């Protein structure tokens, strides 16, 4: 499959937002954690019945695009697989786009602000497990959070349990234990979510995935968000509730211990 630079007006991506995507962090050594992103895109393609190139072809297309698109690292690389149009034998297409990172170094020191969103996340939708290109709900929710001076919004699901951010996974720490909403709560199986859970086990940090209320979150000692671009992002407030953000490298902070291990993992990653 040769990546395309233009999309047909009859492609379901253009007509209905039918497609999937992955956002990769590209550093000097290349894009990070290709296997994780490939696996999730493959799962999404199966769910939506889309034909995805074989893994080696997918990686080679990505590499070729990067060779032809020099840019100063780090930056974000989006890989999109369109829905095509089976009724007219229009195959799915791959698209690559780059953009600057939306996060700033100061935020990793001071933390970001969260806003509790008023509308629930539907944990029963099959799309919660897919990086769908139909992203209007996420964008509107993020804009809603920004109206309240927040950097990110947090969804509760239809049962009133914590689910996820509009573009990130949620973690919180209480009494040295790491908590994160279960996948069945309606959160996306994030690539960094998976890595953080693996690192926590290696560091002998107790971990629990389950169903949690906003009260559980507000009683936390530390809160942080994760996604492919932000990595580990500390949280300093949830609406009017303030939280302490420890200094980078603090040995008394579970979040900072995970951050150090996460950075070491990135440093060992090569294309």
Topology:
Blueprint: H1 12-16, E1 19-27, E2 30-31, H2 34-48, H3 55-68, E3 75-82, E4 94-99, H4 105-110, E5 112-116, H5 136-147, E6 152-156, E7 162-165, E8 169-174, E9 177-181, H6 191-202, E10 207-210, H7 214-218, E11 222-227, E12 231-238, E13 241-242, H8 254-268
Structural class: alpha+beta
Write down the CATH class of the largest domain: Alpha Beta
Estimate the global geometry from the Cα principal axes. Answer: globular
What's the helical proportion of residues? 25-40%
CATH architecture of the largest domain, by name, is: Alpha-Beta Barrel
- Cα separation of the termini: 21 Å
For this structure, the CATH topology of the largest domain is D-amino Acid Aminotransferase, Chain A, domain 2
Number of helices: 8
The number of distinct β-strands equals 13
SSE order in H/E notation?
HEEHHEEHEHEEEEHEHEEEH
Return Rg in Å: 19 Å
Tell me the fraction of residues in β-strands, as a range.
Answer: 25-35%
Average pLDDT, to the nearest integer?
Answer: 95
Short characterization:
By secondary structure, the protein is α+β, with helices and mostly antiparallel strands. The chain contains eight helices and 13 strands.
Kindly describe this structure.
By secondary structure, this protein is of the alpha+beta class. 31% of the residues lie in helices and 26% in strands. It has two domains: 88 residues, D-amino Acid Aminotransferase, Chain A, domain 1 (2-Layer Sandwich), CATH 3.30.470; 164 residues, D-amino Acid Aminotransferase, subunit A, domain 2 (D-amino Acid Aminotransferase, Chain A, domain 2, Alpha-Beta Barrel), CATH 3.20.10.10. The strands form two sheets. Strands 5, 6, 7, 8, 9, 10, 11, 12 and 13 form a nine-stranded mixed beta sheet that branches. A four-stranded antiparallel beta sheet has the order 2-1-3-4. α6 links the parallel β9 and β10. The model has no long low-confidence stretch (mean pLDDT 95).
């Amino acid at each position: 499959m040769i990546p395309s630079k233009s999309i047909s007006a009859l492609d379901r991506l253009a007509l209905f937002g039918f497609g999937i995507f992955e956002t990769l962090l590209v550093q000097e050594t290349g894009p990070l954690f290709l296997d994780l992103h490939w696996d999730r895109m493959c799962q999404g393609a199966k769910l939506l019945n889309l034909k995805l190139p074989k893994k080696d072809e997918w990686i080679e297309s990505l590499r070729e695009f990067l060779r032809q698109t020099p840019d100063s690292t780090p930056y974000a690389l989006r890989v999109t697989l369109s829905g095509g149009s089976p009724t007219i034998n229009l195959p799915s297409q791959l698209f690559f786009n780059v953009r600057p990172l939306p996060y700033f170094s100061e935020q990793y020191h001071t933390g970001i602000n969260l806003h509790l969103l008023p509308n629930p996340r539907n944990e029963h939708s099959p799309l919660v497990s897919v990086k769908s290109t139909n992203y209007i709900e996420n964008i509107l929710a993020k804009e809603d959070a920004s109206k309240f001076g927040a950097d990110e919004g947090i969804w509760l699901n239809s049962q009133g349990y914590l689910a996820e951010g509009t573009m990130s996974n949620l973690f919180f720490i209480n009494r040295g234990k790491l908590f994160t909403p279960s996948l069945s709560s309606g959160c996306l199986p994030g690539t960094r979510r998976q890595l953080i859970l693996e690192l926590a086990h290696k560091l002998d940090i107790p971990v629990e995935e389950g169903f949690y209320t906003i009260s559980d979150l507000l009683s936390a000692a530390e809160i942080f968000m994760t996604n492919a671009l932000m990595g580990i992002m500390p949280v300093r407030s949830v609406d009017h509730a303030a939280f302490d953000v420890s200094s980078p490298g603090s040995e008394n902070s579970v979040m900072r211990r995970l951050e150090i291990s996460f950075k070491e993992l990135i440093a060992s990653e090569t294309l």
